[in-house]
């Protein structure tokens, strides 16, 4: 019985440390994903329109650069 | 007369019409006799477009002030757009409904339209970006992304939609910021009737909702009904009176705020112009005219008069380019 109690205690301690590891891993993942979303938002904010322009200028038939800037 | 011509052609062909039959229009095919093939129903409209005819007729983009849009096509697929707006914009304020704020902005946009990939981006002078992406991943699966990004933190919004289109049903899954998750499904039940439902879940506010919708359409009319657990009941009916004229009516009831609004409108699509007008149960009258002056040049007039709130909005503008 004592061995069972001690094994239960050890099990709980082991589970406790594994649990805190699990919690910190989840926190790490959350921090990194928030950082990634913030960077993605900035990249999209500045780069979406240039991306469309690059894709458009490379599509067939290729328009001229002057057509991009002039209002005619 | 007829029989000799009939003999010259293959025997099974019916003889050509003679006499009065030539003058009268041919009898339309008797549709009721055709048996309904329940395994070959047409694909329904997407769930969010279930009321599109009513929205197109009753909710034109009314504005107040000056609007000038210039679209320049560089390519079949690629075009740039410049848009100037000077006027008042209604901003919802918590204290007294909506307040009018005078705004002026210039908006630059780029569009890339391909059958498989559509990219639309618009950026304003205050740094706000409106981005829309629609990508056909496979024949049946489409990814749509809709985002409004601002410089101020925590005001940006984004939504990812995955659409699956099959022979007679459509399913959509949505993910948005603020932990918004939604799904909807619409199925054709008969050639004219389609039924759908949607569920959504807002993570941050722990709210969820479910809604049902039905759409009945024939060649001449479209009737839709939508009920949601947020307490909204919306009905609409559009009748296509002729090729150029359609009449629409709409009813919305919000059981949470006990708000009822009903509107009736018309939509004239003529050769040189498109005129939409509407009358509300709040006593608000609105009209929107798009007149085609020349190839690609459109003149726009918008008017909205609300005697009850003493709110008079008149706007004019011009659209150049397709």
UniProtKB/TrEMBL annotation, chain A:
One of its GO terms (cellular component) is mitochondrial outer membrane translocase complex. It is a single-pass membrane protein. Its main location: mitochondrion. Signal peptide: none annotated. Transmembrane segments: none annotated. InterPro entries: Tom7. It is found in: Mitochondrion outer membrane. Residues 1-26 are annotated as: Disordered. GO terms for biological process: protein import into mitochondrial matrix. Keywords: Membrane, Mitochondrion, Mitochondrion outer membrane, Protein transport, Transmembrane, Transmembrane helix, Transport. PANTHER family: MITOCHONDRIAL IMPORT RECEPTOR SUBUNIT TOM7 (PTHR34944). Belongs to the Tom7 family. This is Mitochondrial import receptor subunit TOM7-1-like. The gene is LOC103721539.
From TrEMBL, chain B:
Transmembrane segments: none annotated. CDD domains: Porin3_Tom40. It comes from the Eukaryota. GO terms for molecular function: porin activity; protein transmembrane transporter activity. InterPro entries: Porin_dom_sf (IPR023614), Porin_Euk/Tom40 (IPR027246), Tom40 (IPR037930). It comes from Phoenix dactylifera (Date palm). Central component of the receptor complex responsible for the recognition and translocation of cytosolically synthesized mitochondrial preproteins. Together with TOM22 functions as the transit peptide receptor at the surface of the mitochondrion outer membrane and facilitates the movement of preproteins into the translocation pore. Directly involved in the pore formation. Belongs to the Tom40 family. It is a multi-pass membrane protein. This is Mitochondrial import receptor subunit TOM40-1-like. The keyword Membrane applies. One of its GO terms (cellular component) is mitochondrial outer membrane.
